Amino acid sequence: MSGTRPSAEELAAAEGAVIPDVLDTGLRVLFCGINPGLWSGATGHHFARPGNRFWPALHSSGFTPRQLRPDEQHALLDHGLGLTNLVARASSRAAELSNEELAAGGAALEHKVRQYRPGWVAVVGLTAFRTAFGVRNAMVGPHDRGIGDARVWVLPNPSGLNAHWSAASLAAEFARLRRAVESDQP
Fold first, then answer.
1. Residue 84: pLDDT above 50?
2. At the top level of CATH, which class does the domain 8-184 belong to?
3. In 10 A of CB 20, how many CB atoms?
4. Domains of the chain: which residue ranges?
5. pLDDT, tens digit, for every residue of 138-152?
6. Mean pLDDT of the 89-118 span
7. What is the number of other CB atoms lying within 10 angstroms of the CB of residue 128?
8. Mean pLDDT of 99-105
């Protein structure tokens, strides 16, 4: 990739790219996005598009002591945090994903959770969670339905296109999750 901003050609070439997960066993929280956008596919970093509010919300909520950049994603492991996606392939919009892809992604996430055993799984995207797990009435927040031994929390999509959630309300919801995670700690 040339410079820090992908070119139009690099973005087009990123269609279908896969970004490796940031995983380790025993994480406090495994954050699960919907799927990588083209910017992420071109850079190889989760939540990389400028304007995505994941990294600011993570910091503002107290999960990280400073705002990490997407290229510092592996530093999340030092804080007991990890990253994955329901669907691995990059696309220009999450709306391009089929219900079947999301359901298969839910099954793949269940397998990862059983293998890596995080304490919590935070799915970032309410509609994708509903589709992936067949929970039509799911809401943002904690869920009775766990995955393996992990507890589940649904967070709003941090995309800058999600106008229903301001940066402050998004950070507040991330902070609610952080407090729940910390209350589980011995």
1. yes
2. alpha beta
3. 12
4. 8-184
5. 999 999 889 999 999
6. 94
7. 24
8. 96
